[in-house]
Amino acid sequence: MVEVAHLPVVDVHCHPFLNKGRVTSEEFTDMTAFGGGSREYMEQGDIEFTDAVRDELLLGKRWTTYSRRMVKDLARFFDVEATLDAVVEARNTAVDAGYTEYVRRLYGDAGLETLIFDFGVPLPILPMDEVKAELPVEVIPVFRIEPLIAQLLKTDIGWSEFKQTFDDTINDALVNGGYRGVKSIIAYRTGLEVSPLSRTPDQGLQALDAIRRGLGGGSMKKMRDHLVCRSLELCMEHDVPMQIHTGMGDFEVNLPLCRPAYLMDLLRFPTYRACRVLLVHSGFPYHREAAYMSNVLPRVYMDVSEGIPFAGNAARDIMTGVMAMAPLNKICYGSDGYVLPEINYTSAKLGKQALASALDELVETDFLSANEAQEAAGLILAGNARELYRQR
Ligand SMILES: [Zn+2]
Fold this sequence. Notes:
This protein is of the alpha/beta class. The protein is about 50% helix and about 10% strand. It is globular, with a radius of gyration of 21 Å. The two termini are about 30 Å apart. It binds zinc ion. Zinc ion (ZN) binds near residues 13 and 336.
């Protein structure tokens, strides 16, 4: 049997958070749920947010296998009854007694040692020093390009200044700001079908001009595609990985155009072959597709975040599915946790269980020796991410 309980974990994709203090059960559900709507979402649709509507949303968030599993993981940790109210009361008591110490015990139980944070969510960007000061684990920040693009589009600067500010800001973040990589969520905007030919400098100039004149004609897509190409180049210059969101996300994701396959033309283009690229979320539910890409494209990696933990009982299938094609030294564990520390916790517990179960099967069916499976567990949970982010 593969032993995972003692293994350290690097959470390769998640989002920073600060101590929220005590929370109600309702707030806990809202903060930890993957989706299922919010008051704002309903009111934008002219749906009055009555008590009945509030209960309707909570019910959907609580009847996910992910949510039910989290209650059980936390109940075991706190040694309380496996109900939401009991678990929330126990975590509030622990938070009151000392937040950082609570997170230290919680993460110690899961083996969580390092969190690689995409600082692009939440906005406005949380102060890095405060985030680091509260957390008893190593924090590695990643710079998301889309808030920068939004900020630049609000100005009336011309293309040469736009481009220079884009480059300068990312260079500064990587050299002086403590950031160790770049991230794009273009899958939430204009989709992943990015032509490598978008790298031509003229494309940025023409797109910005068309945007400023309100011409439409796909100008925003041309601009975003160009800046993704530029980001890949900057990552190569600084020798840091580029994270690209693939697969499901919240309801705003461009779902038809989030498939990892759309990135093939871009990532196999000779100019970008040197770039180390992490397909975030392994494109779930297209994780087998992402696994294939990390097999045939030497510098493409993938992480299992978001599918684990939010797809609940699919965790084992995700691990098995990606290991079929992805080299085991290119799969990274991740959670996509945010807002509260408990998401990263339950995700690490679930990820370890799913990984051990999937690896045990590979031993039983003679694909891996017991030693190889044990080594692979260490790589997927931490070693591969450390290698990718060059921590030795
Ligand atoms: Zn994320």
